[in-house]
């Protein structure tokens, strides 16, 4: 019996975010090149997206490429960019068929023009879909996002559009790249690392955190369902007394 059968479909997290970690280590443990690990990681993306759609998750955000990743060797960056856009283009018809909408967050202006254009075409192709929203965090870091938010609000104050007294936590949220998304209910991180790594720092204020030793290339449907099931066993109080 799949652990999916134990999941209460009436108590699902609305938004699940995942830090997909361990591709390189998975490959190294098998004597393979890092690129092979990334290729197997793409398979996990497909399987987890299908699993999320199957049980009715509304939003799935994947930490795909951080701003820190630009510091990796150029050959690995080029390979990742090629793998990213080719995989997305290949999967776009399937995403569309399954009513999945593709979106991105992050400083995509840093991405090669050809990659960005091809990615934008895929986003446009699925833009009218109403099922799962699959969000790829590309060239993303939370510190970059928060810095940009501060600049936007400061400019509005300078121009007299907004007063300092009117700034609230809602104002901050409305100026983040995730302004059209609910905050994550559950964050999953694979490969045994127990940190957030500059990901959705503002948005994770009351998110349940789930860490697993499983490398991302081995994180498939059952591992995803296990995380959802554990989430449902927790009591979320948001600082209150139940």
Walkthrough of the structure:
- Helix 4 links the parallel strand 3 and strand 4.
- The longest helix has 24 residues, at 74-97.
- The protein has helices spanning 23-29, 34-55, 74-97, 113-125, 142-158, 169-174, 221-232; strands at 15-19, 59-66, 101-105, 133-140, 186-189, 208-211.
- Helices cover 42% and strands 14% of the residues.
- The two termini are 33 Å apart.
- The mean pLDDT is 95.
- A 6-stranded parallel sheet has the order 3-4-2-1-5-6, sandwiched between helices.
- It is globular and about 55 Å long.
- The protein contains 7 helices and 6 strands.
- It has 242 residues and is an alpha/beta fold.
- The protein has a single domain, classed as Undecaprenyl pyrophosphate synthetase (3-Layer(aba) Sandwich).
Number of helices: 7
Please summarize the sheet with the most strands: 6 strands, parallel
The CATH superfamily appears as: Decaprenyl diphosphate synthase-like
Tally of distinct domains: 1
How large, in whole angstroms, is the Cα Rg? 18 Å
Q: Assign the CATH architecture.
A: 3-Layer(aba) Sandwich
Shape: globular
Distance between the termini: 33 Å
Strand order within the widest beta sheet: 3-4-2-1-5-6
Q: How helix-rich are the residues, as a percent range?
A: 40-55%
